[in-house]
Write a structure and sequence with these properties.
Radius of gyration of chain A: 18 Å
Shape of chain B: flat
Structural class of chain B: mainly alpha
Radius of gyration of chain B: 23 Å
Oligomer: heterodimer
Distance between the termini of chain B: 35 Å
Strand order of the largest sheet of chain A: 6-7-8-3-9-10
Largest interface: A-B, 32 and 24 residues
Order of helices and strands of chain A: EEEHEEHHEHHHEHEHEEHH
Number of helices of chain B: 10
Order of helices and strands of chain B: HHHHHHHHHH
Number of strands of chain B: 0
Strand content of chain A: 25-35%
């Protein structure tokens, strides 16, 4: 399914490179993601997928090239800007909830401290989001009392609490038990249908077919292939991508 | 706890029992039923105020100073990390007693040469020394505690827009504090015991008072035995307080992701 895609770019990466020591994690990446577009990134481990999304919100700093996100150039200075960062929501593989805070406290921390909301409004927003990720009854629990799937849904709600313009997902289901993957993916698909810009790193190809506007295959720090989901899965152009898809789709 | 009280009681009975049979003990010096003994006891126990005040103030200062020193130690900036290293290596290499002398006798001379008329009395001299000396250790505890918190916590805090201080205040330190409570308690106990050094610059705390009675009564065994138990009581109280705090903060809960 192809959503209507706005013609304004949300993310523009131009000749972006990034190394960790001798290892070239990103090698001359050029990528434009339009407003409202849903992009799924896949590729073997070490191919640079995570680094790609982490450069977009400034968790990693790129060495060469430029990254423009919602009209702002990503620089060391803008990365310090709380409002800029809060416009880019991120969901991590390991959830990264704050274990000493309750679910509700996890959700309202950002809105209260970064956006300066009062507690009443923050609670209201958080309650609505917990409803949306279908765990309103867990708000007073600590993260450790929840299942992995529930924790990840809280993490998604926490990110949404900041009303981001872009959502980044870095392998959101890779740390989950198999039976919990679909509850998280369902929430992400709902989100996709609401039109927010999303970049999702995942190997869940069933999800990709349902939610993606565009598929990106990375290998060795480069974007090797990109296409709409139908052509991507049915007629992969490169051998490398074909082999990869064969490997993950044969199960 | 019950077992500890019983142990104390058993030791007391043992020592007390000795006095009548062998004659090597002379508990009369601190026998509360005699007037002289009661006066001695009151004098000795009166040292609790100073020891507690010294230790508490020094511990609070040491924690604040330690946190302040730990912060540059976790920085990405080499220069800031070097400041942390130099402070820690230098301060923890100085034995407490020379440092106490230096602060008490030396520091006022420096102040004077700078044209400042600042006197340091025994109380504050001891507090400054204890706080600085201990802060090097506290700083290392804080650094280790903060670094033990998974990187993902800082990253998650950044993605919801928290700045460095908010991340520390609301995300990292509350978690680190739970983990470092046991070693911090160790340091507090250490301060209580090291506060005995304040006796050499004339601070009338527990040890000084014990020394003074020993000089007049020639009964070191009894009085120093009592002194040891005075410190034991303080340390047991601290242990209990910390256990309570650990339970309250849930330190023994393993913190997840």
């Amino acid at each position: 399914m192809i959503n209507d895609v706005n013609s304004i770019p949300a993310v523009t990466m131009t000749n972006v490179s990034k190394s960790f020591g001798d290892f070239k994690a990103l090698n001359d990446i050029n990528l434009t993601v339009m407003n409202g577009e849903k992009v799924v990134v896949c590729g073997p481990s070490g191919s640079g997928k995570s680094t790609l999304v982490r450069c977009i919100n400034g968790l990693e700093s790129h060495e060469n090239g430029s990254i423009n996100v919602i009209g702002e150039e990503v620089t060391p200075r803008i990365k310090q800007n709380a409002l800029f960062r809060s416009k880019i929501g991120m969901v991590f593989q390991q959830f990264n909830l704050f274990p000493h805070l309750t679910v509700m406290q996890n959700l309202i921390l950002g809105p209260m401290k970064t956006l300066g909301m009062n507690k009443k409004d923050a609670l209201k927003r958080a309650e609505a989001l917990l409803e949306r990720v279908q765990i309103p009854e867990q708000s007073e629990k600590k993260p450790s009392q929840l299942s992995g799937g529930q924790q990840q849904r809280v993490a998604i709600a926490r990110a949404l609490c900041m009303e981001p313009k872009i959502m980044l997902f870095d392998e959101p289901t890779s740390a989950l038990d198999p039976e919990m993957i679909s509850e998280v993916l369902d929430v992400i698909i709902d989100l996709a249908n609401e039109g927010i810009t999303m970049i999702v790193v995942t190997h869940e190809m069933g999800f990709a077919k349902k939610a993606a506007d565009r598929m990106i295959f990375m290998d060795g720090g480069k974007i090797v292939e990109q296409n709409d989901p139908e052509n991507f899965f049915n007629n992969p152009k490169t051998d490398r991508c074909k082999t990869f898809l064969d490997q993950i789709l044969q199960h | 706890m019950k077992s500890r009280i019983l142990l104390l009681f058993a030791i007391f009975l043992f020592t007390h029992g000795c006095s009548s049979s062998s004659g090597t003990w002379g508990w009369y010096v601190i026998d509360p039923s005699t007037k002289a003994g009661w006066i001695n006891i009151k004098f000795l126990i009166g040292g609790f105020y100073a020891t507690i005040a010294l230790s508490l103030i020094a511990a609070v200062l040491s924690i604040l100073l330690g946190l302040l020193v730990a912060m540059p130690g976790i920085s990405d900036n080499k220069f800031l990390r070097a400041i942390n290293r130099i402070y820690v290596e230098f301060v923890r290499a100085i034995p407490l007693l020379p440092m106490l002398f230096w602060v008490f006798y030396g520091l006022p001379v420096i102040f004077k040469s700078m044209g400042l008329n600042i006197q340091i009395d025994a109380f504050w001299g001891a507090i400054i020394t204890l706080a600085i000396s201990d802060s090097a250790f506290t700083a290392e505890i804080f650094r280790a505690g903060i670094q033990s918190i998974a990187r993902g916590q800082t990253e998650a805090a950044q993605t919801i827009g928290l700045n460095y201080f908010q991340t520390m205040r609301y995300v990292i330190l509350p978690q680190a504090l739970r983990r470092i409570l046991p070693p911090l308690a160790n340091q507090f106990i250490y301060i209580v015991k090291m506060s005995a050094f304040a006796s050499v610059i004339g601070m009338q705390e527990l040890t000084r008072r014990a020394n003074e009675i020993v000089v007049t009564e020639y009964r070191p065994l009894e009085i120093y035995t009592l002194l040891i138990f005075e410190y034991l009581i303080l340390v047991i109280i601290i242990s209990f307080g910390v256990r309570w705090l650990e339970r309250k903060l849930g330190s023994n809960e393993s913190a997840g992701g």
